[in-house]
From TrEMBL:
Pfam name, any one: DUF2189
Membrane-spanning ranges: 67-87, 93-113, 138-164, 190-215, 244-272
Protein name: DUF2189 domain-containing protein
InterPro entries: DUF2189 (IPR018692)
Species of provenance: Paracoccus pacificus
Alphabetized UniProt keyword annotations: Membrane, Transmembrane, Transmembrane helix
Length: 295
């Protein structure tokens, strides 16, 4: 059998750079839309939310070990941030950090969408296969949307700090008990709650509209960022009540998932991630795909 010639270091470097260049080129190319036509936007209701959650729970049960391996990092990050808030005298940021999870949740669940897609098609759906999809045309748009959500999260943390400084601050509180007493028993504390809730609601509504189906859509089709964002907003506009209800379900589940010490996210995040895929499948239809699920 003829031996494959061994290249010199220069040829290895050239081949490696060429491979990197192709990967970067594919990622950048994926940001734009290859499929310019938007899919059909369907009416969805409470029954679709229930069905999506049920299907998400079934995916979690079927893929439990792989899913937990893929998402266990996020509770750890949440716990580390909570410890930092206590030790750095930033107790006032503890709730904003926990409340900010829904803003970056769609990025955290990107591998879960792929697992559900693969399971739906009868393909291998372990976490290695799921993470393997984050390359080529998918990587660029996912990074772009991820950076957008991270920017919104940064705006939320900055706003939360500014609201606290203008009401209860700027002197930091040394203990959680003292901070909670000042928050719930003083006028400035209630001002902080009301203003913070209003700002958080607006930012959460923005994230919900732009990420409702955009991330699953990027995994599923070569649509790029513009069409994915436009489709997600169109789904939210056609189904405002259902979108608002879905947002409340996600927010309530993530709040419960932070108890105790973010450990509940190991279960909550996978179910919501899988359910988001199934809600996407119900919210949009394509001419070249079978009809959306009905059960």
């Amino acid at each position: 059998m003829p031996q494959k010639p061994i290249g010199n270091p220069l040829s290895w470097s050239a081949q490696s750079l060429a491979g990197i260049g192709r990967g970067v080129g594919a990622a950048v190319d994926g940001i734009g839309s290859h499929e310019m036509a938007r899919p059909q936007i369907n009416r969805i209701g409470i029954a679709d939310i229930r069905a999506a959650l049920r299907a998400g729970a079934e995916d979690f049960a079927a893929l439990r070990s792989d899913v937990i391996t893929a998402v266990v990092l996020y509770p750890i990050i949440g716990f580390i941030l909570a410890v930092w808030a206590f030790n750095a005298g930033q107790i006032h940021l503890l709730f904003p950090l926990a409340a900010g999870f829904p803003l970056v949740g769609p990025v955290a669940a990107i591998g879960l969408y792929e697992m559900s897609r693969r399971r739906e098609l009868g393909e291998p759906a372990d976490w290695r296969a799921a993470l393997g999809t984050l390359r080529g045309r998918v990587l660029g748009p996912v990074i772009m949307l991820g950076l957008l959500l991270m920017a919104i999260f940064a705006v939320w943390i900055f706003a939360a700090h500014a609201i606290w400084a203008a009401t209860l601050g700027p002197e930091p509180y040394t203990g959680l008990g003292a901070f909670l007493r000042a928050t719930f028993t003083t006028g400035p504390g209630w001002a902080m709650i009301i203003i913070g809730t209003g700002v958080g609601f607006v930012l959460a509504a923005v994230v919900l509209c732009i990420s409702l189906v955009s991330f699953p859509m990027l995994i599923d089709r070569p649509v790029g960022v513009p069409v994915a964002l436009a489709t997600s907003i169109a789904v939210a506009r056609r189904n405002p009540g259902t979108t608002a209800l879905w947002g409340l379900v996600v927010a309530a589940a993530l709040v419960l998932g932070t108890i105790p010490f973010f450990v509940g996210l190991i279960v909550v995040l996978p179910i919501l991630g899988h359910a988001t895929w199934h809600l996407y499948r119900r919210a949009v239809s394509y001419p070249d795909r079978a009809a959306r699920p009905t059960s």
